[in-house]
Specification:
It is globular and about 35 Å long. It has one domain: 2-Layer Sandwich (Alpha-Beta Plaits), CATH 3.30.70. It has three helices and four strands.
């Protein structure tokens, strides 16, 4: 089992999860974070840290597409190990309740560390 990040992270990208990850398995895109499934140790400390409920176990329904998305982008985007409060989107609060945000995913990499 591993944890994945779903579309609730898109345009929110709060990065609280990054701070608690003991194995640094988060990768940063322009407007979303992902978890590298092969690096995740299934400790679960990141899940309760996410205020948007974007982190889920891969055993939940509909997780296959999120596993694939996390795998793909964790191989393309830079690793991130520290929260950068200045990089949290200014309008993230308005995006928290929006459903089906996959259409807003930017494939561009983030800054990383």
């Amino acid at each position: 089992m591993t944890y994945i990040v779903n579309d609730k992270c898109i345009k929110c990208k709060l990065m609280d999860c990054v701070e608690v990850c003991p194995v640094d398995c988060f990768y940063e895109g322009e407007n979303m974070l992902v978890i590298k499934p092969d690096e995740c140790i299934d400790c679960g400390v990141c899940e309760p840290e996410c205020p948007t409920d974007a982190i889920k176990a891969d055993t939940e329904d509909d997780s296959t597409k999120w596993i694939e998305l996390n795998e793909k982008y964790s191989n393309l985007w830079p690793n991130i190990t520290k929260k950068r409060p200045d990089d949290v989107p200014q309008d993230e609060a308005k995006w928290r309740g929006v459903n089906d945000k996959l259409k807003y995913l930017s494939e561009k990499p983030g800054k990383g560390d």
